Amino acid sequence: MILVDTDVLIWVTRKDSHASAFLDSFDDLAISDVTYMELIQGAKNKREVQTIDKTFKNMEVLRLPITSNISENAVSLVCRYFHSHAMQLADALIAATALEHGLGLATGNVKHFEVVEGLRLHKYTPQPKAT
């Protein structure tokens, strides 16, 4: 199982076949509640929210809640890395979720997470658009 960062899912919603193939290379997918909320906030309307929910159900994506342990670990990450690496709240919660569940993180934003010790990153690189 792999935890998927928001950016990779955004590429999938943009019909990027490379992003879909990247996710297909993993057996099972999970997302943090943070990722779910970011996608909902990015939806244009309730219909898009329904599409997101239906897609996750069809893909059997496991949604992982923010627990007190995850919250505490995220606080530690922000305290440790905000001033040196600009660690943001959402990224800290996503990283802490991956660490808590012993999951690697599929992301195109490696720079946001590479500082986190023990976090296994699986880098997604968007393909350049053909012209």
Assign the CATH architecture: 3-Layer(aba) Sandwich
CATH topology: Rossmann fold
Q: CATH superfamily name?
A: 5'-nuclease
Give, in order, the helices and strands: EHHEHHEHHEHE
Spans of at least 5 consecutive residues whose pLDDT stays below 50 are: none
Residue share in helices?
55-70%
Between the first and last Cα atoms, what is the distance in angstroms?
35 Å
- Helix-and-strand structural type: alpha/beta
Portion in beta strands:
5-15%
How many strand units? 5
Integer count of domains: 1
Brief characterization of the structure:
The chain has 131 residues and is an alpha/beta fold. Helices cover 57% and strands 13% of the residues. β4 (104-107), α7 and β5 form a beta-alpha-beta unit.
Topology:
Elements: E1 2-4, H1 6-13, H2 17-24, E2 29-32, H3 33-42, H4 46-59, E3 62-64, H5 68-85, H6 89-101, E4 104-107, H7 110-113, E5 121-123
Parallel strand pairs: 1-2, 1-4, 2-3, 4-5
Please provide a written account of the structure.
By secondary structure, this protein is α/β, with parallel strands linked by helices. The protein has one domain: Rossmann fold, CATH 3.40.50. Helix content is 57%, strand content 13%. The protein is built from 7 helices and 5 strands; from the N terminus they run βααβααβααβαβ. Strands 3-2-1-4-5 form a 5-stranded parallel β-sheet. Helix 1 crosses helix 2 and helix 5 crosses helix 6. The protein is globular and about 35 Å long.
Identify the notable features of this structure and list them briefly.
131 residues; alpha/beta; Rossmann fold; 5-stranded parallel β-sheet; 5 strands
